[in-house]
Model the fold of this input.
Amino acid sequence: MKHGFLKVAAVTPKIRVADPKYNAQVICEKLETAYENGAKIIVFPELCLTGYTCNDLFLQEILLEEAKKQLLSVADATEGHDAIVIVGLPLERDGRLYNVAAVIQDGVILGLVPKSNIPSYAEFYEGRHFTEGNREVTSYYLEGEEIPFGVNLLFECTNMPGVVVGCEICEDLWVANPPSTDHALMGATVIANLSASNETVGKDEYRELLVKSTSARLLCGYIYTSAGEGESTQDLVFGAHNMIAENGAILAQAKRFEGQTVYADLDINRIRSERRRMGTFGKEKDLSYVAVPFKLHVEETSLERTFGNMPFVPGNPLTRNKRCEEILSIQSYGLKKRYEHTHCKTAVIGISGGLDSTLALLVTVRTFDMLGLDRKGIVAVTMPCFGTTDRTYDNACKLAQTLGATLEEVDIKEAVMIHFRDIGQNPDCHDVTYENGQARERTQVLMDIANRTGGLVIGTGDMSELALGWATYNGDHMSMYGVNAGVPKTLVRHLVRYYADTCDNELLREVLLDVLDTPVSPELLPPVDGVIAQKTEDLVGPYELHDFFLYYMLRCSYSPEKIYRIALESFAGIYDAETIKKWLKTFCRRFFQQQFKRSCLPDGPKVGSVAVSPRGDLRMPSDASAALWMEQAERL
Done:
């Protein structure tokens, strides 16, 4: 389970009703395949040793005895294999019949978990045969061996921190208070559900919703294995709707009616990270539970799980458009509240012809439209200096004019040269003073125009720049409200693209498309032959890599080693290992070095699950050491 990944499987064998010997045989055959695929937790359906649809045959002693016998044969078949195997069967205890999940590992039956909720409605009539399981753990004796028996059983891997398995059975998931809730509160990170949910029209959607929402609510991995082919179709049909979910996302799902085995790589470390982040999780510890220990061999999981290389951007175009509209609304409503509070009527934005200032201007236009304010109150200021190119200058002007804003031009070359003279800066020395002197002059101009017009300076910097500290302290770093502060660079591009595609203004669309095609640059160094010479991504690295690093470090608490591992998979064919390693080290170094800039950010709206506001999501010391992160990154 290196890096916290644990491969699990949901398996539905094609059984015969009331034939435990045959069923045990096909279960063992399926186990061999699951072992070969590296599964460490393998879950079979409810009552799979006999079949769920035995009805009154469950009352036959011969069937019950054979089921016990075949449970032992399945247990024997697990010996020498490195996995937890969970199968369902009926068991008699003290004159009552229970619907049970047997948890087996390396030839040993670790425990028996009875079903808590027995349905007797509609097509279900389990109450005719089965008894509600006891929560308190007692003992069951099988072939002279004492086995824990009860709902409040957890199975804890002693050599893999955080791997704790709990079981529930079918109907248990559908009730108001599922056993899995208590299991999770008592430490279970993986819930196995052995099910025999039959198919009716539309039921699959509700079943999927239950599995997703349960894994989200409990912050756990959820393995749902359902009965399928081989069950009696006298009255019902079973579709083998197997699913594996984690934290609200379906990682793997079988096509119904095909008896598919599904595999997925649960991220146990991320589950633990989410619970630590919540702070309110697992407070109730007064429940009486028994933890059964087991061990698994620690090895590197061969990942089937994929990680999108743009985690901030939805892959589905329809979802992406909906998300873009939502984000623009969050930005606009955040700014709207600020204007309602301050009673300001003007906005001042430094426009460069680049992506960030374009998005900020588009958001401000939406805000003014919502407030019923004249767009002429938006003062779009272009401030050409040493690095400005004709392309970006023209786009900035066209953008302001097309949107109906007031365009002002303030050429800052002379002011910057006077400043350089005053501080003794050689203008031929293109160092950090040369660059930042321009950025701070621009900010001073914007602030003073805002004072003159009674308006607010709208910040343009995005979250990716803030994460890297790619902003001039008290220069473009500062504003009166930063509308892009919660938007990563990879998402900025899609927001501008969305606006271009939906604006119904061909001139505006042409300008936006050219902005999208322009290299990202602060334009603080002189152009070469009229072309941008200073390209941000050549200096700090590709933003798609940095956004990937940012997401998995802050949202998932991944270490540099784990980020590197999944980046190799996600960017295969795009960036080689050395390139990824180089920019990951840059990210770790800059992220810690530049926290002092984030510690005094202006206000701005959070739009997604990751944010760097010092008042909200990232309360981090400005002088925290990066040694642990850098040491691991250096060892890659």
User: Anything to note?
Assistant: The two ends are 19 Å apart (CA to CA).
